[in-house]
Amino acid sequence: MKTSIATVSISGDLREKLAAIAGAGFDGIEIFENDFLAFDGGPREVGRMVRDHGLEISLFQPFRDFEGLPEPERSRAFDRAERKFDVMEELGTDLVLICSNVSPVAMGGIDRAAADLRQLGERAARRGLRIGYEALAWGRHVNDHRDAWEIVRRADHANVGLIVDSFHTIARKIDPQTIRSIPGDKIFFVQLADAPLIDMDLLYWSRHFRTMPGQGDLDVTGFAAAVAATGYDGMWSLEIFNDQFRGGSPGTIAADGHRSLVALMDAVRRTEPAIRIDLAPMPPPIAVQGVEFIEFAANETEAEDLKAMLASMGFAHKGRHIAKHVDLYRNGGVNIVINTEREGFAHSAYLMHGTCVCDIGLKVEDARATVERARALGAEPFEQPVGPGELKIPAIRGVGGGLMHFVDGKTELARVWETEFTPVGTLDAPDMGITHVDHVGQTMNYEELLTWLLFYTTLFDTHKTPMLDVVDPAGLVRSQVIENDNGTIRFTLNGADQRSTLAGHFISESFGSSVQHIAFASSDILETAQALRATGFAFLEISPNYFADLQARFGLDDAFVDQLRTGNILYDRDDTGGEYLQLYSRLYGDGFFFEIVERRNGYNGYGAANAQFRTAAQKRDLRGKSMPKR
């Protein structure tokens, strides 16, 4: 499979774009004409630069407003095309994109357009060049790939072919399956883009909100499968117009793009195994069975504060690492590891961020297969020296700089706790009703959110929920959830735009994106709250006004509301009768916190309606107390 990306898709000048695209593993580029015109070197220099990066120029684009024009505009269009051909020859590319005409003087007529393309095809052939015709979703007369194909078919020239773009087809709600009837050798080029579903002007939607495949809501997989079924064996290219990407890191956006293409075509071959996709084999998306452990990096002093906080939630010290300054704390099915080593990855994480979550361990069916898929998707495997008696646990570097380790139940990894930790203590943790990790809340700058989303949804067998705006007293935080169908893995991704929000404050003070909160599941949160009061747990105090309103909104009985108020427990109920109860710790450091939740009757949300009341309480807590600082 050969991959390409349009230079307009990422930020930077042309040199920066080429370096990022090559570094991400692409085979080629589409040179967007404005990027070429803004460059201070000639076309021959640009061609050399591209080839020096190990890339090819797969397409020069766009050539606008060509077909179906009256005179004298028609003659000028052919003259313009000849000048573009001159540039293409010097660049070293043989294919130009001609998009359907949007000029107000353009005349309709399939035969007229076909005749123009045939004549231009003759001129291109004399130079060894090709032209690809694309239907813009907002084209004046041609805005459907079926009409574009009919024009190409009637042009009947070996140097004239079709270019299809997922956005233009899907945005107009045209069935992509109609592509299957087009001969694959007449499809000269394929452009791919996703987008969130937004009801707006097609041109504005296209120019500002496209995303990488998998980051939006369009069925790009179905489109790509339809194209692949034709026997098409050319470039699979990304053409992304996105305001956020234009201001992002070229390297990150390019890496996201390559990952999205690999994952997309892997999904196509799994959807339709009969379709041949020239892509190296890789394991399927990984099913996650649960969170095996959460690891904190800390120094000795701050570790004591964290241990005290865990003890107030019923966590007991259960093990000490056989060779490292690493301690295991356990409650129910939750394992918390505190690492106070003075060298290695955890120590580096502490020096950078202060006390923080540096590692998440997930239980999967096959740990080594997980790293194999991650590597195929461009993730970086992680290894560090293993001492006597220690296991080599498969791991990768996640987004945000943290680690992810993987254990399974079919290898020696199933006995990691018995193998690497010496038991300590004889008492079991007090029964707090805590059973497992319900979800992990990760906070990042908003412009990073789509990167995190793509990382998780391409590696793991998960899906994303619709994006929500979480109200903070100082602004909005955009939140999106990555989860699987059975709820064994849930990540809440919170993208902060403003430093003044709690999420923004956390990113600023901890110097980067990270886990901001961990939610534990309780079998009975009312009993858990009662047990927590006995241990001296520091509850986040919720405004009494919240509980008075709660009773009126849901018609709850007085005794139940009193229990919620006493335990500082927030409450939500969905349309099917599912209930969600949640309580919070006070803040640790510069914004980290723990949450305890109970889901009743199949509730699958995260208490979004309560977010503004929780954040208001946390902002008061941040201003009004003194907690251990990083």
From TrEMBL:
It catalyses: 3-dehydroshikimate = 3,4-dihydroxybenzoate + H2O. Its cofactor is a divalent metal cation. Residues 295-409, 436-586 form the VOC domain. It is an enzyme of class 4 (lyase). A divalent metal cation binds at E134, D165, Q191, E239. Pathway: Aromatic compound metabolism; 3,4-dihydroxybenzoate biosynthesis. Pfam families: AP_endonuc_2, Glyoxalase_5. One of its GO terms (molecular function) is isomerase activity. Mg(2+) binds at H439, H517, E595. Keywords: Isomerase, Lyase, Metal-binding. Its EC number is 4.2.1.118. PANTHER family: HYDROXYPYRUVATE ISOMERASE, XYLOSE ISOMERASE-LIKE TIM BARREL DOMAIN-CONTAINING PROTEIN. Catalyzes the conversion of 3-dehydroshikimate to protocatechuate (3,4-dihydroxybenzoate), a common intermediate of quinate and shikimate degradation pathways. Belongs to the bacterial two-domain DSD family. HAMAP family: DSD (MF_02238). This is 3-dehydroshikimate dehydratase.
